[in-house]
Amino acid sequence: MDERDAIRRCLDGDKDAFAHLVRQYQAQILGVCLRMLGSREDAADVAQQVFVRAYRNLGKYDQSQPFGPWLFRIATNECFGFLRLKKNQMTAAGTEVLEYTPDPDEGAPALLDRAEDQERVRRAVAQLPPQYRSVVVLYYFEELSYQEIARQTGLPVGTISTNLYRAKQLLRRQLAQEEVDPGEASAGRPAAKVSGR
Amino acid sequence: MKHLQADLLQRYLAGEADLTEQDTVVEHLAECDECASLLADMAADDRTLTAALRLTDAEAAWIAGMDLTQPVMTRLAWYREPSLIVLALLALLPGTWILGQAGQWMVAQLTADGPVGTALAIGGLLGSALWNLLVYASNGGLLVQIWPVLILAAGYWLGRRYYKKEDKSHA
After folding, report:
1. At what angle do helices B141-170 and A3-11 cross, to 10 degrees?
2. CA dist A30 to A50, A57, A77, Å?
3. CB contact under 8 A, A122 and B75
4. Quick check: B163 contacting A, CB < 8 Å?
5. Is A63 an interface residue toward B (CB < 8 Å)?
């Protein structure tokens, strides 16, 4: 059974045909959710929700378009929704959330490139605000073009470029701050407010 | 010298700048070490991020070991069309009212006649209801009572058929 057959059968009410689509896309969806959410547990939960939502909205899917990008759009939206909820919970709990503030100097050191520091970079990415995190994941992990990211997120192409640049600025400053104050960073602080320099 | 906007350098690096912008960047970089250095830093950042965001072996193994089919299909098994849920809720409303009335009657009956008297009264009521139903059905009256349900079911079935036709027309 190919993808189109599976979709047609699902639309005819055959729920079991959907298992074929889940098997085909679960690895990619889990990967994106993992990078967007930074936690395996959350990624597994949200990935399930992505497929459930896709099934419920299958009637709205335009079959003249490829299925993958449509599913990834749902995944991005679900991750956004999850992060928004989490951000609200963090705000309610009094935890400060990382925010972008323009940096006139733009003098933060370049991101680290040693293998042992990649975990720090991943952690820093996981602390980015959702609108920056999503473009970073879609561009560097999914390796999508600006046009494809724009289609998936509904943002203008110019905003993708700006968000990518700002995300990198935030990451640089976040990592630089960790180096100045490694104790706080290693204590598993969920997020830090980046001050403009 | 006026420096290039970081946003333009980002697009140039990503291969998303148009031909005019590319020419502007190339010309400027030939004369501006500061922008060239910024571009080199941005390129290094890109390499770092691509490498850092790649799945680690442990993550790849975790993903390979995951099977979402079972949990997703279980959740879908419980999934019902919203229209069916609304119909069920509508059906529940009179059911809840009837249960409430029956509960009140039971309490009053138990207080007045005790358990045995109540059991006999329930038996009598059920027998009389069954008898009435049989008489009603034999006169063709039952059809008159269930026609709203039949119309609702027919409407739902026609709606589903139309909905599916719409989906297929997209194909």
Report:
1. 160
2. 10, 20, 14
3. no
4. yes
5. yes
Higher-scoring residue by pLDDT: A112, B79: B79
pLDDT digits (tens, 9 = 90+) for A20-69: 999 999 999 999 999 989 889 999 999 999 999 999 899 899 988 889 88
Query: Measured between alpha carbons, how far is B76 from B57 in angstroms, rounded to an integer?
Result: 32
By CB neighbour count within 10 A (0-12 exposed, 13-18 middle, 19+ buried), where does B96 fall?
exposed
Structural domain contains residue B1: no
Contact A11 B164 (CB under 8 A): yes
The single residue listed with the structure tokens 């459930």 is A52
The rounded distance, in Å, linking the Cα atoms of B148 and B68 is: 42
Task: Take residue A108 and report the two structure tokens written for it.
Answer: 């933060």
Supply the pLDDT for residue A186. Answer: 42
Give residue-wise pLDDT tens across range B56-114. 899 999 999 999 999 999 888 777 667 777 888 887 888 888 888 888 888 888 888 88
Domain closes at, from B65, B99, B115: B65
Chain A's closest residue to B74, CA to CA, is A52
Interface check for B165 against chain A (CB to CB < 8 A): the answer is no
CATH number for the domain spanning A83: value is: 1.10.1740.10
- Check CB contact of A176 with chain B, cutoff 8 Å: no
Judge if B58 and B80 occupy the same domain.
no
Q: Report ipTM for this prediction.
A: 0.74
CA distance A79 to A50: 9
DSSP tag of A1:
-
Write the single-letter amino acid at B110.
L
Strand, helix or coil for residue A69: helix
Residue A104 lies in a domain: no
B170 close contact with A: CB closer than 8 A:
yes
Taking the CA of residue B6 and the nearest CA in chain A, the distance in Å comes to: 7
